[in-house]
Design brief:
The protein is globular. The N terminus is likely disordered. It has 3 domains: about 120 residues, Periplasmic binding protein-like II (D-Maltodextrin-Binding Protein, domain 2), CATH 3.40.190.10; about 120 residues, Dipeptide-binding Protein, domain 1; about 210 residues, Roll (Dipeptide-binding Protein, domain 3). β2 and β3 form a beta hairpin. The chain is α+β, with helices and mostly antiparallel strands. Helix content is about 30%, strand content about 25%. The strands form 4 sheets. Strands 1, 8, 9, 10, 11, 12, 13, 14, 15, 16, 17 and 18 form a 12-stranded mixed beta sheet that branches. A 4-stranded antiparallel beta sheet has the order 4-5-7-6, with helices on one face. The protein is built from 16 helices and 20 strands.
Length: about 500
C-alpha cells in the first residue's frame, strides 16, 4: 500500500514536471540590452524597437541571409519602364490583430501615415513617393517624383511595416502605447524598463511556422545581469551582451553563440551645426580640430580592448568588406604628432569638450579609451554617461558636443547615409549640411546601376570624411547567446531575430 502510494506520487510528480516543461517551452524569453523607444514603426528609431517589431509587425518586404529583398506581405512587384512607379501585389489572407483586413487601401493609409505623421522618422525614407494609387483591392502603385533605387530596401524595413488603420486612427500619436500590427504575435502589455509581452496571434497567415505561445522581452542594460539571467535559465536568448563574455559562453555546452557581421557602424557624432552649442565647442566649429581628434585615435586598439576583437575597424558608413566602401578613402592611421600640429594651427592646443555616451558598459569603455587616447594629443574630454533614450533626445535638441553612438544599419547604403548626413533630415543629429554632399546623395538615389552608385559613394566619401560630422570607428559583430536547444535562428545581417521557424527542442 505504501509502495503504491509512493509510485502514484512519483507518477504525479513526473506529470506535473512535464506539464511545467511544456508551459515553459511555450514562452520565448528574450533579453534586450536597452528598453525600446516608441513601439510605433512610424515614430520609432531604436534597434531594440525593431527587434520587437520583428515578431509584432510584418512588412511588405524583408531581407534574407544574403541581403536579397524577399516578399513578406507582398507577393510580387513590378517596376515601370521609367523606374518612376512600383506596383505591388498584396497577400489576400492577412488580417490585423484587431480583425481588420489588410488590403491595398490599408497599405495606402500606412505609407501616407509614414510620410505625414508629425514626428515621423520615415518621412525622408519615402520622400520620393509622390502619390499612392489603389489599383484594385490587393494591388497598389507607388508613383515616384524621381527614380528611387533604395525603395525596396526601405519597404523591407520600418517604412514597410503595416499597422491597422482603424487602430492607428483611433489612437493617433498614442498608437505606440498599444500597437496593432499583422505579425505572428500581438501586443499584450508593456511595463517601461521592465517587460514587453506579446502573445501568439491565432489568425496569423503563416501560423504553422510559429511555435511559441508568448514572447516576453526583458530590457536589462547591465550586460553582467543580462548574462546572469541567461545562465540561470531566466532567459532563452540575449542580444547586446559584452563581447568579452564570448569565450566564457563558448565553453559552456548549455549555450550557443551566433556571431556575424552586421550592417551598422559605431562612431562619434559631432555637433557641427545642430545648435548654437556647436559654435562654443572647438570640436564643432573647426574641421582642423575634428581632424586632429580623429588622428589621435587608434581604432584597432578600441576594437581589441572594448570589443575583445569582436568587430572590424572602419572609417565609413559601411564596412571595408562592403561593395559600397569607398576604397579611395582608407582608414587613417593614428598620428599624434600631426594631431598636435593641427591643434596648434587652429589656435587651441588643449581643446575641451564633453563626450556623451550611453550607460551601456561597452559604450562607456569606448568613451574612456577615446578620452585616454585623445589626451595624448592635448584634448581635455569630459565623459557624460546618459541613459540611451535620453541621449538621443538631447542629441536631437542639439544639447551636446559629441556623442558615442551606433547605427544599426540597413541593407542599402542609403539607409546608413541620407537620413544621417543630408541637410535637415530628422536623424541628422550632427546638424551637418553640405550642398555638394546632398547633390551626390540625390544622384545615388536616382540610379539603379550598382557601379554608378559605387562611384557616387566614392565621391561622397571625399566630401564627408573631410568635414567629419561623424567619425566612424568600427563595425561590431552581431552577437546572440541562447540556450543550446533553441533551434531555427537565421543570421540575417540586420541582427533581428525572425521568430518564424524558431522552437525549443526537448
Amino acid at each position: 500500500m505504501r509502495e503504491g502510494r509512493r509510485t502514484r506520487n512519483v507518477i504525479v510528480g513526473l506529470v506535473l514536471a512535464a506539464a511545467l516543461c511544456v508551459s515553459h517551452a511555450q514562452t520565448l524569453r528574450i533579453g534586450l540590452a536597452d528598453d525600446p523607444d516608441l513601439l510605433d514603426p512610424t515614430l520609432g528609431r531604436t534597434f531594440v524597437g525593431r527587434f520587437v517589431f520583428a515578431a509584432l509587425c510584418d512588412k511588405l518586404f524583408d531581407i534574407d541571409e544574403h541581403l536579397a529583398i524577399v516578399p513578406q506581405l507582398a507577393t510580387r512587384y513590378e517596376w515601370s519602364a521609367d523606374n518612376k512607379a512600383l506596383t505591388i501585389r498584396i497577400r489576400e489572407d492577412v488580417t490585423f490583430h484587431d480583425g481588420e483586413k489588410l488590403d491595398a487601401a490599408a497599405v495606402k493609409f500606412n505609407l501616407e501615415r509614414h510620410k505625414t505623421l508629425p514626428g515621423s522618422n520615415r518621412t525622408s525614407e519615402l520622400a520620393p513617393v509622390a502619390s499612392i494609387d489603389v489599383v484594385d483591392r490587393y494591388t497598389v502603385r507607388l508613383n515616384l517624383s524621381t527614380p528611387f533605387s533604395p525603395l525596396l530596401g526601405v519597404l523591407a524595413d520600418s517604412a514597410g511595416i503595416m499597422v491597422s488603420p482603424k487602430a492607428a486612427r483611433a489612437a493617433g500619436d498614442k498608437f505606440g502605447a498599444k500597437p496593432v500590427c499583422s505579425g505572428p504575435f500581438r501586443f499584450v502589455e508593456r511595463v517601461a524598463q521592465d517587460r514587453i509581452v506579446l502573445e501568439r496571434c491565432p489568425d496569423y497567415w503563416n501560423k504553422d511556422e510559429i511555435h511559441f505561445k508568448r514572447i516576453v522581452y526583458l530590457p536589462i542594460t547591465d550586460s553582467m545581469v543580462l548574462l546572469a539571467n541567461l545562465r540561470s535559465g531566466q532567459l532563452d536568448l540575449i542580444q547586446g551582451f559584452a563581447p568579452s563574455d564570448v569565450p566564457h559562453l563558448a565553453n559552456d555546452a548549455r549555450f550557443k553563440i551566433t556571431k556575424f557581421p552586421g550592417l551598422g557602424y559605431s562612431g562619434i557624432t559631432i555637433n557641427v551645426g545642430k545648435s548654437d552649442q556647436a559654435k562654443r565647442n572647438p570640436l564643432g566649429r573647426d574641421p582642423r580640430v575634428r581632424e586632429a581628434f580623429e588622428l589621435s585615435l587608434d581604432r584597432q586598439g578600441i576594437v581589441q580592448v572594448a570589443l575583445d576583437g569582436q568587430g572590424v575597424v572602419g572609417n565609413q558608413w559601411v564596412a571595408p568588406t562592403n561593395p559600397y566602401y569607398a576604397t579611395n578613402a582608407p582608414v587613417p592611421k593614428r598620428d599624434v604628432a600631426r594631431a598636435r600640429a593641427l591643434l596648434k594651427e587652429a589656435g587651441v592646443p588643449n581643446p575641451g569638450f564633453t563626450l556623451m555616451t550611453p550607460t551601456a558598459p561597452v559604450a562607456q569603455q569606448v568613451a574612456q579609451i577615446i578620452q585616454a587616447m585623445a589626451r595624448e594629443a592635448g584634448f581635455d574630454i569630459k565623459i557624460q554617461a546618459t541613459e540611451f533614450a535620453t541621449s538621443l533626445d538631447l542629441a536631437d535638441k542639439g544639447q551636446y558636443d559629441a556623442q558615442v553612438v551606433g547605427w544599426s544599419g540597413r541593407a542599402d547604403p542609403d539607409g546608413n547615409t541620407f537620413r544621417l548626413l543630408a541637410c535637415n533630415q530628422p536623424l541628422n543629429a550632427s546638424g551637418y549640411c553640405n550642398k555638394e554632399a546632398d547633390d551626390i546623395l540625390a544622384k545615388s538615389r536616382t540610379t539603379r546601376d550598382t557601379e554608378e552608385r559605387i562611384g557616387l559613394y566614392r565621391q561622397l566619401a571625399t566630401v564627408v570624411l573631410k568635414d567629419r560630422p561623424i567619425i566612424y570607428l568600427y563595425h561590431g559583430n552581431v552577437l546572440w547567446a541562447y540556450r543550446s536547444n533553441l533551434q531555427g535562428l537565421r543570421p540575417v545581417p540586420d541582427g533581428l531575430v525572425r521568430v518564424q521557424g524558431v522552437r525549443l527542442s526537448p
